[in-house]
Amino acid sequence: MLDDILNECREKMNGAIHSLEQDLLGMRGNRASTSLVDRLKVDYYGMESELRTLATISTPEPMQIMIRPFDKGAVKAIEKAIMEANLGMNPNTDGDVIRLNMPALTRERRQELVKFLHKRLEEARIALRNVRRSANDDIREYEKEKMISEDEAKIGQEKVQKMTDEFVAKVEEMGKIKEAEIMAV
């Protein structure tokens, strides 16, 4: 029973870490990355689709993203989605290929990105603490219903706390790496 709670807790914490990883991939660093645009929502013939399902995305140069739509009819919709996403890049269309040239990051923009990064890291830590609280509530409920002993409950809560500390450390490490990437000139 306790193992079920711990396994569910680990699963949910892994989910929070995965979500953070996806967000960090989409956050601009010092190089062009396809992950900046691959999850962009494009209104394609009335259906909202992710850009990566509509085009091949590559980085032919360190500061350029190239988007080659599978259907030439999607070019205008993709351009519109890029403009609406406010990525700080203007799409240059060359026939059926869209190029995004990334401007160099200014010091102010780097600081804004770091602020946003810290906000997102705090959201991840809050999510982990919420999972911890939920797991501890479940453990207390099991103890109250005499499904586990008081000692087992205490051991379970200690394991949940240890797991939380482990995942918070992962968040911190991911944050340090991304901050270094943003601040690198």
Overview of this protein structure:
With 185 residues, the chain is of the alpha+beta class. It has 2 domains: 2-25 and 106-183, Topoisomerase I, Chain A, domain 4 (Orthogonal Bundle); 34-101, Gyrase A, domain 2 (2-Layer Sandwich). Helices cover 58% and strands 16% of the residues. It is built from 4 helices and 6 strands, in the order αββββαββαα. Strands 3-4-6-5 form a 4-stranded antiparallel sheet, with helices on one face. It has a two-stranded antiparallel sheet with strand order 1-2. A hairpin with a 2-residue loop joins strand 5 and strand 6. Helix 1 packs antiparallel against helix 3 and helix 3 (107-144) runs antiparallel to helix 4 (150-183). The relative contact order is 0.17.
Please name the fourth-level CATH homologous superfamily of the largest domain: Ribosome-recycling factor
Please state the structural category.
alpha+beta
Low-pLDDT stretches: none
Named CATH topology of the largest domain: Topoisomerase I, Chain A, domain 4
| Residue share in helix | 55-70%
How many helices? Answer: 4
Beta-strand level of the residues, as a percent range? 15-25%
> Major beta sheet, specifics?
4 strands, antiparallel
The tally of strands reads 6
CATH class of the largest domain: Mainly Alpha
Distance between the termini: 51 Å
Q: Radius of gyration from the CA trace?
A: 22 Å
Strand order of the largest sheet: 3-4-6-5
* Elements, N to C (H/E): HEEEEHEEHH
General shape: elongated
Number of domains: 2
